[in-house]
Design goal:
Layout (H helix, E strand, L loop, with lengths): L6 E4 L17 H13 L4 E4 L1 E2 L5 E2 L2 H13 L5 E4 L9 H4 L9 E5 L3 E3 L2 E3 L3 H13 L3 E6 L4 H10 L7 E7 L9 H9 L5 E7 L4 H11 L2 E4 L6 E3 L2 E2 L3 H14 L7 H8 L5
Parallel strand pairs: 1-2, 1-12, 2-5, 5-6, 6-9, 9-10, 10-11, 11-12
Antiparallel strand pairs: 3-4, 7-8, 13-14
The chain binds (5S)-5-amino-3-OXO-hexanoic acid and zinc ion.
Amino acid sequence: MGDPVILAAAVVGAEVTREQNPAVPYTPEEIARAAVESWREGAAVLHLHARWPDGRPSQRPEHFAEIVARIRGAGCDAILQVSTGGAVGMGLEERLGSLVDSAEMGTLNLGTMNFGDGVFVNARPDIVRVASRLRQRRLVPECEVYDAGMLETLRWLREQGHLAPPYHVQFVLGVPGGLAGTERNLRFLVEGLPEAAHWSVAGIGRCELPMAEAALRLGGHVRVGLEDNLFLSKGVLARGSGELVAAARRLAAAAGRTPATPAEARRLLGLAGS
Ligand code: KMH
Ligand code: ZN
C-alpha cells in the first residue's frame, strides 16, 4: 500500500444550516456525535467549530470544552483541531475563545478574502497574533490557504520566525471569493510549498470528492465533512460527515492509500505526545 493518508472531518463549520441539510449538527452533543462517527469511519483529525443550540455560530469556550469532553468521553483518540476562523464578522478575540485545553491543533487563516457575500478578515497583524496565541497554548497551527497569494504570507511568517517546521497546510479550495477547486490550481499550490510541509485539501461543495481524489493521487491528505459540502453525490444529501469520511476512505483504498490512525497522524504531523 502507498503512503498513509490523514483523513480529517470538518463536521459543522459556521455557515451551513439545518435548512440546507437536516444532518447539520448544532448542539455540543450533536457535534461530538458527528465527530465520533467520523472518527469511527476513519478520520484521524477532527476540525471543530461550535454553534449555539439555535444554530448561530459560537466561539464560546464552554461550547468547545463540552464538545471536546464529549468526544474524549466516547473514547475517541482523534487529533482535535479547533477553528480560530469562526464566522465572518466575528472579532479576533471572540474567535480565539475556541482555544480550550486538550485541543492539539488550531487553524491559522493566512489572509483576508471575500467569503461568499462577506469579507473574512485576517490582516497580517491578526495572523501574527493568532500564531503567537497558538504557540503560547502549545497548539500546533494548521495554515488555511484559500488563494495563491496566501503562500507568500506563509513564506513571510516563516522568515519572521512566527512559524516553525513542519508546516501543516490545508488548501481550502472552492470558496466563492477564493481559488477554485481544480486539479490545475491544486498542483500549482503544491509546487509553491516550502520543504517540510504537509498538505491536505478541503474542496468546497461539489469539488469536495474530486479534490480528495486528486490529493490522494498527488500524495496529499484529505478533509471532508458537512462544513465544506452537504452532498454525497449530485442531488443526494449526505446523512452526516461520517458518510463523507467513508466515501473518502473508499477513494483512498482505490488509490492504494491507507487511512492513518490518530497515532500515526500524530507521528506524521510531528505533534507533541506521539
Ligand atoms: N467560517 C469561515 C469564515 C477556520 O475554521 O479556521 C472560516 C473557517 C476557517 O471556517
Ligand atoms: Zn472551519
